[in-house]
Amino acid sequence: MSRLRLDLPQTFLFSTEIPIRISDINYGGHLGNDAVLSLVHEARVRFFGSLGYTELNVEGAAIMMTDAAVVYRAEGFHGEVLRIDVAVGDLESATCDLLYRVTNVATGKEVARVKTGIVFVDPLKKKISSIHEPFRA
Question: Can you give the pLDDT at residue 37?
Fold first, then answer.
C-alpha cells in the first residue's frame, strides 16, 4: 500500500497553540482523526484573523475548503498543547493550499501534517473568484 506524503515548506507564516480537548479524543484514547481537521480549522481562522480577514471576507472573497489530506506522525492525548504552524502554498489564480505542521509543544514531536485545498469564491455571485493581490502578496 502506498502512503500519502506531505512535504512541508521550510518557512511558516503563522503559529498558534491549541490544547487537545476531551472532545478531541477518540475511543482509542488519543487524538481522533476528525479532531485534527477541527484543530487546523481553528488555526486557519486564527491565521486569517491575524491578517485582518475572516473566512467569509478575504479582500471581498470567501474561502471554501475543497480537499484535505492528513498524515499522522504520532499520537496526541487530552491536555497536551499543540503548536500548529501554517503556510500557504501552490498559489494559483483562484486556489491555494494551506499547509499545517502540528507539533506537541512539550515534546517537540510532530503529531501530524495537514494540507487543505482552498478555493476563493465571490459570495454574492456564488462563483469562483480570483485571489486578490493583497492576499497573494
Answer: 96
23 half-sphere exposure, CB direction, 13 A CA radius: 2
| Average pLDDT rounded to a whole number, residues 5-11 | 92
Q: How far apart are CA 75 and CA 77, in angstroms?
A: 7
Which string of DSSP letters, residue by residue, matches 30-51? SB-HHHHHHHHHHHHHHHHHHT
Q: Does pTM top 0.90 for this prediction? A: yes
8 Å CB contact between 116 and 101: no
Domains recognised in the chain with CATH numbers: 14-136 (3.10.129.10)
- CA–CA separation, 39 and 84 (whole Å): 8
| H-type alpha helices, the chain | 33-50, 133-136
